Amino acid sequence: MMTNSPNLGTRRLPPLPAARFPDAGAAVQVIMRTSKQPASAVDILLVNPPAPDGGIWIRSQHRVGRRSRENMIWPQVSLAQLAALLVPDYTVEIVDCIATRMGWPEFEKLLEQRRPKVYLTQVTAPTLRNDMHGVFVAKALGARTIAFGTHVTPWTLETMRPFPALDFVLRGEPEMTLRELLDTLEGQGQGRGQGEGQDQGQGEGQGRDLASTSALTSISGLAWRDRGEIVINPDRPFIANLDDLPMPLHHLLPLDKQRMPMIRGPFTFIVTSRGCPAGCKFCIKHVSYQTSVRIRSPQLILEEMQALSALGVHTVHMYADLFTVSRDQVVELCRLIIESGLKVRWMCNSRVDYVDEEMLKLMAQAGCWYITWGIESGNEYILQRTHKGYRVEQALQALTWARAAGIHNWGFFIIGLPGETEETIQETIAYAKQLPLDIALFHIAAPYPGTPFFYEVVRNGWFRPGTAWEEVDMDQSTVLDYPGLPAERLEYWQKRATREWSLRPGPMLTFLKGLNSWEGFKSAVSVGLQMLQFIRS
């Protein structure tokens, strides 16, 4: 029963106050900024993160990511180059989880120990979510997080939007952008956990150094966050003179873990140039260096080879979009190697229309052991349509010259380029058998984002319906679905091409030659088992 209390009808509830929940995170950030860092802490951790499946994956500054079918440990020279630009002003460590076979549990413990101020990672499309896990863990530990590579350059917004733990993206060539970014943050006293990523939701002008916004805006090639909004600054011009870059800090890499099939002992990469003048529509260089050809001086390349020799590395791969892009550079480098008496074996890549007989003989005298050739197709129409820029008969001539000089030939072919039919694929297989090749690899055409081929696939609706193409290992499967040549047939022909070429006496002999040492045995058997598994699947 209701009472007639005189106060009951007149009592009023107080107005609701504004919600102000305690910010324990801010207090923790203060502790992290003011507490003494452990002895194992570093300023910058440069990372090639663990693989999503524990396998061997290839990541690189200007290449695409893929699972390594040939069981090759890809040297992280791009990280060593970045490190050379940072020391001695910053403490730096390179962690190559692929080479050391480090899984996520061990890597997360390492992050706890190192507590980096800055976490910089390689990112590829097929390992995107996996790579962002490292970003998330590092961010949770208070690090500023940075990504670079051929995926985040053309897909900056699409990467940063779904992964808010990623603070910065270095678009294009990362070296100078990274150095300028770190110097800017250091100069403004933005320590661990401070800056744009920490003040979202605060009032205008609170907890924020407005000068930092202006400073970050001025850094070319940088993408960053301003109060939750993603800002993409103007692109940075290419480095005009590669000789201005310091020598990569190879000693920071796990040199004893890097390997390539048929090579005994440690090996690594030496970057001799960047860019390629060719217009191949499928090439990832359209994203990274485009046609901006820049070469290093032969003397500096020789000095790097000598430094590696002192570290016990006597086998190198001349890592370039097109090693033979400058005949004068190649000839002078070979002359210097021969005159120095340096005992080294080296590999390189080339186009079949960028060599001549005299140059190949000189390369062999200077220690060139293998050349990888982008042959792609045995059909003239396919070559023309993809703007490859050479004639079919030039491949036979170039490889014959190389074989006569004593150089081994490694050919790369692409199944499923625009205009391909089952008949043209059979032409390519037949042509591959005619060439003096020691190794041949057949890949399915991959429309990497940012390449002319990618835009052609989008325009024509050739993406396989329902395929999450941006996270597919395009080296192992395909996202293409041509009219009359669906994905299933492309995958069938890739395996058939591999089987037809490999299971012949010549290629089998090459495989057996890899058994002439314990390291060669392990490498050759590993590759052989993978190839058999691939053929049977």
Distance between the termini: 81 Å
**Assigned CATH architecture of the largest domain:** Alpha-Beta Horseshoe
Q: What is the CATH superfamily label of the largest domain? A: tm_1862 like domain
User: What strand order characterises the main sheet?
Assistant: 4-1-5-6-7-8-9
Rough shape? globular
Mean pLDDT: 85
Number of DSSP-assigned strands: 17
Helix content: 25-40%
Please compute the radius of gyration using only Cα atoms. Answer: 27 Å
Domain count = 2
Give the number of helices.
18
Uncertain ranges? 191-211, 515-525
- Summarize the main sheet: 7 strands, mixed
As a percent range, the share of strand residues is 5-15%
CATH class of the largest domain: Alpha Beta
Under CATH, the topology of the largest domain is which?
Answer: pyruvate-formate lyase- activating enzyme
Structural class: alpha/beta
What does this structure look like?
With 537 residues, this protein is of the alpha/beta class. It folds into 2 domains: 39-198 and 208-232, Rossmann fold (3-Layer(aba) Sandwich); 260-536, pyruvate-formate lyase- activating enzyme. The protein is built from 18 helices and 17 strands. It has a 7-stranded mixed beta sheet, with helices on both faces. Strands 10-13-14-15-16-17 form a 6-stranded parallel beta sheet. Helix 10 packs parallel to helix 11 (357-365) and helix 11 (357-365) packs parallel to helix 13 (392-405). It is globular and about 100 Å long. The model is unreliable at 191-211 and 515-525 (pLDDT under 50).
